[in-house]
Design brief:
Distance between the termini: 12 Å
Order of helices and strands: EEEHEHHEEHEEHHEEEH
Largest sheet: 7 strands, mixed
Radius of gyration: 16 Å
CATH class: Alpha Beta
Structural class: alpha/beta
Pfam family, one: DJ-1_PfpI
Organism: Amycolatopsis albispora
CATH superfamily: Class I glutamine amidotransferase (GATase) domain
Family: Belongs to the peptidase C56 family. HSP31-like subfamily.
CATH architecture: 3-Layer(aba) Sandwich
Number of strands: 11
Number of domains: 1
Protein name: Thiamine biosynthesis protein ThiJ
Number of helices: 7
GO molecular function: glyoxalase III activity
Strand content: 15-25%
Length: about 230
Amino acid sequence: MNKILIVMSAADTWERTDGSSYATGYWAEEVAAPHEKFAEAGFTVDFASPGGVRQPLDRHSADPEIAGPDCGRYVEHAERALREFGPLRKLDEVDIDDYVAVVLPGGHGPVVDLHQDPGLGRLLTAADAAGKVIGAVCHGPAGLLSAVDAEGKWLFAGRKMAAFTDEEERLFGTAEGAPWLLASRLRELGAEHTSGPAYQPYNVRDRNLFTGQNPASSAPMAEAMIDALT
């Protein structure tokens, strides 16, 4: 078995506290860089989302002034990978036993839907219990919040992890009006969140959990996961 599951958000809109709507989607590098690394290492990659909905591209991730000079390559790779895979699998229909690892990329979508998706929560709980490799990058760690038990206890409380920081959210211009900030929420719920310089690669491993702070951390996270799997 050499299959890895990438779980994407289905959200295209982030409602703000002032009543405005922010258009969101998947961040190209956070899908493309891990997919590229996994494919090169011989893994088969499947995609899933709530309802099997294909999320649109976050156009910010296609802007070289924001996402860097390689963003065009990442956009092309991500779009091709998603197109060739075809319709995304419905998250509720995924059997984690079919996979050796699960990955949660970002864009702001995970703070809209994945953080409270019960299907993802069940999948992550089963994956962690089986010792499977779990990766989450940038806003992807919001999806980890879905893994709570019947008493509301969070599965990943006490675990070390990285995620998009409050500072990076402010620098990006999306902190004001956000219903909540990811790094702060993770700490409030018991994560041992650490961080590096804004927008520089920063990765954390805690047993089978691999996390990255921002888009630049996507490829290093995938490489670390591959090392653990091989």
